Amino acid sequence: MLYRFFSSLKTSVYILVFLCILFLIGTIFPQGENIDDYIEAGGKYVPIVQALDFLDIFMSPLFITATFLLLLNLAFCLYDRLKIYLKIKRRPMDFQALKQHAKVITFNNGNLTNQLRNIGFTLKEETEDGADPGVKIFEKGVPFWWLSWFYHVGIILAITGFFLTSLLAFEKDVLLYPGEPETISLYSEDTRWNMFREWLGRAEPELREDDQYELSLQEFRTEYYQGLKIDYPGEKLDRLALGAGIKKLEPSREGFSYMPKMWLTRLNVRKPDQKVLDAALWVNRPFRTGSLTLYQMGFEQMVTLSVGGEEMEVEARMPFTVEGTEGKFALGSLRLGTLYKRDGSREEIIPVTSLYYIPEGTPSAKELIGELSLGGQLNAKGISFKFMDYREGSYLSYRKDPGVWIVGLACLFVFLGLIVRCLGAWYRIQCAFEKNTAYVLISTRGILADRDRIIRKLHRAKTA
Amino acid sequence: MTPEEILLRDALLLSIELKLYWFVALSYGVCFFIGVAYLISSNPGTGKALTWGLRITAFLHTLLILFRTYEGMRPPFQNLYETLSWFAWFANMTYLYAQSRWKEVHLPGFLVAGIAMAACLYSLLTRSPVIAPVPPALQSPWYEAHVITAFLSYAVFVVSFSVEVCYLRFRTPPGTTPGMFGFIDEGFRRWTHRLVLFGFPFLTFAIFSGAAWANDAWGRYWSWDPKETWSLITWTVYAIYLHTKTIGKWKDTPASVLNMLGFVCMIMTFLGINWLVKLLNIPSLHTYAV
How far is it, in rounded angstroms, from Cα B194 to Cα A310? Predict the structure, then answer.
C-alpha cells in the first residue's frame, strides 16, 4: 500500500503542487525577518505565520517534510522503474496485427534489414510466429526510459547537495588593507549543524590551526569605463515623439559618466601548511584553494583630510562631524584607478571625491559643496578642507560549502539527461517480410525524431 | 574622434535604433490587428496576411538586433530594455518555425503578435535605451548563457500557450473537414507538448547557469531570492505539466490548465516579480533586472 502510494506518479504531482504553494509563500512573506519586526510593519495573519514559520519557510518543518516526501517519492519511483527497466523484454507484435496496423508502411524490398543496419539501427528482438513470417524489432538512439531514470537520479543528488549546503555551509567577510594581514578560519560555529550540536549539548570542536589561512593584501585596483550620457525623456509621450522623429535625441551637457569596469584584488594566501600562494580575484572570478573560496564583494575607502589645519581620517560615503560646526559633512566615493575611454585610450584618474554638507535634522537636503582632488583644497561653512592622503581596503567574503560540488554534479546529470531525452531522437521499427513485401511500423520519441526522414532514407536506399 | 564627436555619433545611432524599434513595435501591432480581423472574418487570406506580416516583422526585428549589437559592440541582452526585445524576437521566430509545420493554421500568430507588441512597448515606454558598459556583476559567461537560454525557453512557452488557447477555443472534431481556422485538432494540439518538451531543458539550463553565475559572483548558488524562487515555481509547474501528460485522465484539460498556468508563472518570473518586489518592498539580489 505504502509502496504503491510512494511509487505513484500522482503522488509526485501532489507533492510538487504542495511545494509550489510553499515556494509562493516564500515570495510573499519577508524571509528571514523577525516576527516582532513583521508585526510592527503591520504584518497580517500573525498566528499562522508564527505557527507555520512562514518567515523562514525554506527551513521550516513543513518545507523540510515536503522535500523529504519528494525524496522518498523519487527514490521509490526510481527503484520501481529500475525493476521494470531491467526486465524490459521487447515483444514483437503478432504478424497479422502488424500487417493490419493503421500506420504500417509497406516496401517492395526483401533486403530492408541490411538497409536498416546501414542507417544505424540494431536488431533487438526477433520472433518466429508459427506459420506467419517472423517480426523483428530494430532500435536506434539512447533508450529514453534510462535517460529519464538518469535525470531523476540527478534531482535526488541536487536535493542532497542543497541539504548539505543548508546544514554545513557558512559565509563570512574580511576587510583587508595593505600591510594589515588577517587570519581566517574554515571552521564556524554558525553552521546549522554546529548549532544543532550545541542544542544537543555537545561540546564545540576546538579551533584548529590546520584550517586557518592568513591573507595579506598586495594590491586593490578599480577600473572604470567612460559611459555615455544622453538626455533620454522619462515621459511616455516624449518617447513616442522621439520614435516618430518629432523630437531629437541630444547628448547630455554633462558629457560622459564613470561606470565601474572591474574591482581587482591581489593578495598572498598563506595556507595551513605554510605554503604561500599569489592570488588574484575580481567580481565573478573567485579564488579557490582547497575548501576555501574567496569572493570580491566591494571596497572601503579611507580619506585623510586636513580640516581647519587638523588632520582626520574619514570613511568615504559616511557622514562625519567637525567640531564647532552644526550639521555634518560627507565625502562621496573616492574615484581613482584606470579610466577606459570611448576613443580607445586609457587614463590614470587623479584621485578625486565630492564633499557634501548635510544640514542638522534634514539629511535629505544634502548639499554638494564641490570636488576635492588629491592635494586640493575646498572651503565650506568657513572651514578649509584639504585632501591629504587616502587608503583603500578590499572587502572579501569567504565561504566553505561542502554541498556545492554535489549540486554541480546533479546539474550535469539533470541537464544532460533532459536534453538528450527531450531533444534527442529514439526510434523503434517493427518489421516483417512476406514474399517480397516488407511491413514496417515506426515509433519515435524526442523532438528531433523524424519519422518521415527515416522513411525517405529507406526509400533512397531501395532506389540506390 | 573628439569626445564631443563620439557623443554625437552615439546619440545619432541611438536615434536610428529607436525609430527602427518603434517601427518594429508598430509592425507587431499591425499583425495583431490583422489577427483580430482574421478572428472576426475567418477569411483564410487574412490568416496568410498575418503570417506574412510576422515574417516581415521578424526580418525587421533581426535588423534591429544586429544594429543594436553593432551599436553596443556586444550581444544585446544586458538589461530589461534589451531582453524584452530578445523575448519578442525569439517568440516570433519560434512561432514562424512551428507555423511552417502546420497546414494552413495561422491563428496562434495573433496571440504571439500581441505578446511581442506588448513586450516591445513595455521596453520602449518604461526602460532606458542608453547603452551602458557592462557592470562588473554581469561580466560572466554564465550570465550570457543564462539570459539566452532563459529567453529561448520563455519564447517557446509563449507559442505553446498560444497553441493551447487556440485549441481550447477553436478545436475541430477529429476526422472531419477543417474548421473556420484550419485543422485545429489533436495533431495540432500535440505541438503544445512538443514545444514545452523543447523549452523545458533550456529553462532548466537557465536556472543552472544562473546558479553557477551566482556561485561565482556572490558565493551562493541559491539564495531563495524572489526571482529565483519564481523561476523554480515556473520550472515546477512545467514539470507537473509534463508528468500529467503521462497520466491518463489528466492529460487533457488538467494539462491544458497547467500549461496556461506555466505561462502565467513565466510572465511573473520575468516581469511580475519586479512589480511584486517593489509592492511588498522585498529585498532582492536581482535589482539590476527590476
Answer: 74
Residue type, B238: Y
C-alpha dihedral sign at B161, B162, B165, B171: negative
Burial class from Cβ neighbours inside 10 Å (0-12, 13-18, 19+) for residue A47 reads exposed
pLDDT in tens, A319-345: 999 888 888 999 999 999 999 988 888
DSSP run (H or E) holding B107: none
Residue A195 pLDDT class (50, 70, 90 cuts): confident
Residue A272 grid coordinates: 595551513
Backbone angles phi, psi at A289, to 5 degrees: -145, 125
**Residue B283 confidence (pLDDT):** 62
How far is the alpha carbon of B216 from chain A, nearest alpha carbon, in Å? Answer: 5
DSSP, collapsed to helix, strand or coil, labels residue A103 as coil
Residues 373-432 of A with CB under 8 A from B: 397-399, 401, 404, 407-408, 411, 414-415, 418-419, 422-423
**In A200-321, which residue ranges form alpha helices assigned H by DSSP?**
236-243
CA angle B84, B86, B88 (to 5 degrees): 70
Mean pLDDT over the full length of chain A: 88
Q: Find the CB nearest A284 among B124, B136, B222.
A: B136
Residue A261, CA atoms < 13 Å, CB-side half-sphere: 18
Instruction: State the pTM of this model.
Output: 0.89
Let me know how long chain A is.
464
Q: Residues B272, B151, B137, A20: is their CA dihedral positive or negative?
A: positive
Alpha-carbon span A121 to A454, nearest angstrom: 11
Contact A339/A347 with Cβ under 8 angstroms?
A: yes
> Are the C-beta atoms of residues B225 and B284 closer than 8 Å to each other?
yes
- Please state whether beta strands A346-358 and A367-373 pair in parallel, antiparallel, or not at all (unpaired): antiparallel
pLDDT at B210: 94
